[in-house]
Design a protein that fits this description.
disordered C terminus
Length: about 240
């Protein structure tokens, strides 16, 4: 899930090793992605063409399109959505759900920032700076959300296709996208894992209003009944 900037790397328990054909395909995909990142860093996103990427990766343009339908997909697509799903399923059944979620996200972020820090920062920066990348990211969110629905449904004992599970999964995915954008907009200065924790806190506890100080102009008392401003004063409900 590129929302987390390819952070869910090879962090799951070892499974069956891919065959020769799959390894070749993976090698080609990695070569295309590496060439794309290198060219974008050298000359910018808009100046980088599929033809240049193909030449740098030593493949044909048709091969690039066979693996990635658009240039945005090269930037965003990763192999790690299934790994995130497996990590959630591997957590102890009696572990509180949000503890599991925090553990998996922090592990994913830590691995990604350790193994591919420059790529992680580039991808999130492009999400902020390039509207086409951000738009494609939003389109791909539904695929990742469906994958998470299965793991979430199993964990909480609900139908993965139920409205409640789908709403929660997409809320999580949307929140993680905002984590990436927020991190990049701040120049990658804050700790990515800490920001992800804050996002999970919002999902778990909701958005708690901050207490206003007397100096806050929005904290003035509501207009008295009969005051013309009273018609326009917002009403707070519990």
């Amino acid at each position: 899930m590129s929302t987390m900037a390819a952070t869910a790397h090879s962090s799951t328990a070892a499974g069956p090793q891919p065959g020769l054909r799959e390894r070749k395909k993976m090698k080609t995909r990695i070569a295309i992605r590496d060439a794309t990142y290198r060219l974008i860093q050298e000359q910018g996103y808009d100046a980088t063409t599929i033809e240049q990427i193909a030449e740098a990766a030593e493949v044909s343009p048709s091969t690039v399109f066979r693996y990635f339908p658009t240039k945005e997909d090269i930037v965003l697509t990763d192999e790690y959505d299934p790994l995130l799903e497996e990590e959630l399923r591997a957590r102890p059944a009696d572990e509180p759900w949000f503890d599991s979620l925090r553990y998996v996200l922090r592990k994913a972020v830590t691995v990604g920032n350790t193994e591919e820090p420059e790529v992680t920062r580039l991808r999130t920066r492009l999400m902020v700076e390039v509207p086409a990348v951000r738009s494609r990211m939003m389109e791909s969110m539904s695929v990742t959300g469906r994958l998470l629905c299965r793991a979430i449904g199993e964990r909480v004992g609900r139908d993965p296709d139920s409205l409640e599970v789908r709403v929660f999964a997409m809320s999580l995915i949307g929140g993680l996208m905002e984590v990436s954008l927020y991190w990049a907009e701040g120049g990658h200065q804050e700790d990515f894992a800490d920001i992800a924790d804050r996002a999970v806190d919002v999902l778990e506890h909701g958005l708690t209003p901050l207490a206003r100080t007397p100096a806050d102009p929005q904290a003035r008392s509501a207009p008295a009944p009969g005051n013309p401003e009273a018609r326009h004063a917002p009403r707070m409900t519990s």
